Write the structure tokens for this entry.
Amino acid sequence: MSTILKIFVFPAALVVMCLGVLTILGGHITPGGGFQGGAMIAAGFIFCLIVYGLKESPFDLSHDFLSAIESIGALGYVFLGLAGLLFSGFYLYNLGVDIYHIVPTSIQTIFNYSDPTNAGILPYLNFVVGLKVMVGLSAIVYAFLAFREYGEEAVDEPIEEIE
Amino acid sequence: MIVYIGPLVLGFILGFILGTRIRINSESGLEFGASIYLIFLIIAFIVAYLLGPFPYYKDIPLANGFIAAAIGIIMGKLLFGRAKNPQKVED
């Protein structure tokens, strides 16, 4: 890729990622949410992977990181659902809002998201979904690039004749 | 003035996670110094001002989640984003 792209893309990807974070955080009051924001963050990763290549990308997406974040995202969603089941009897009950008035105030305070809309656990659900989508889409492109590189290396190697 | 810490905390955490992944490969020849992050922070403030706050947020006239994410990225890079050494492949 050209030098201009190599200078421009990294800071631009950071801005795109911040915009993705903002999309995740505003999922309960504006268009967007976990999936859209996660896809935007993944777009930042993919932008760098395409321009800099797999080996020179400034973002180091190791297998451990990808699996850990994906697990945190999935388990966080399940735990938020189970917390609702535990304290109210309903899976994914919005403990922070508590429209049925069946949850103690202390639990409601813990799970309530601090913002003027009284959104409860919805931003937390957006957050964990965003983590999972970000890692999932990044891993797909990362794997495609790795397979391609592996395939090119395999073609370059001389083919040994089978006796 | 009421400060809503929800987007600040979650934005910082997400940005921090992203910032820890910034590891420049020492063999790549790429060099992103402090000036890149300074420019990024200035641009982040401008973009956050132009985006404006979420609906119903009356605390500051900025997209505070955007600023929190930008600061989180820089903090993550400073604390954990070390230079990546190429892996030695053993035969």
